[in-house]
Amino acid sequence: MGEESVPEQFETLLPLAVQWATEEEERILREGVPLAEDEIVDAVAMGVRNPKRIRLLQVDEIPAPRHPILKAAAGAIRFLTPAPRGLALCHGIFIRSDRSLIVHELAHTAQYERLGGILPFLRKYLFECLTIGYSQAPLEQEAISMANRVCGSQVS
Ligand SMILES: [Zn+2]
Hints:
Layout: H1 5-31, E1 33-34, H2 37-45, E2 55-59, H3 68-77, E3 86-89, E4 92-96, H4 99-115, H5 118-131, H6 138-151
Parallel strand pairs: 2-4
Antiparallel strand pairs: 1-2, 3-4
The site of zinc ion has 4 residues, from helix 4 and helix 6.
């Protein structure tokens, strides 16, 4: 691939990216919610000139473009990996829903309650993490499967 092909590829890519971002922004502006007052303060501090135009849309997963060329490019520049927590498309901002995260932590809270507080929980949890490893620790596995039962398979 010669250096000359880069601007050519870029000129193919750019209009596709613009079209995708424009459509997604329109969707967010239609379906999203305006910023809360403290978020408007943050937006102003960031230098946003039209904070009242901004809409936030909570999604389970940040959508990725389906067009094969865009998809490949997005992967190549790591603009849209499977796990981004947010994505701004001008005044439309995707925010990944944190419900799965909260549900996972609630499962740990239930374990604290069941085991009788911080000391007994940490005694068991840390022991498991140190001997079996964090990802395979039974308390961790239980929290993952409990959260999966409540809100699908997107929990880690
Ligand atoms: Zn956990």
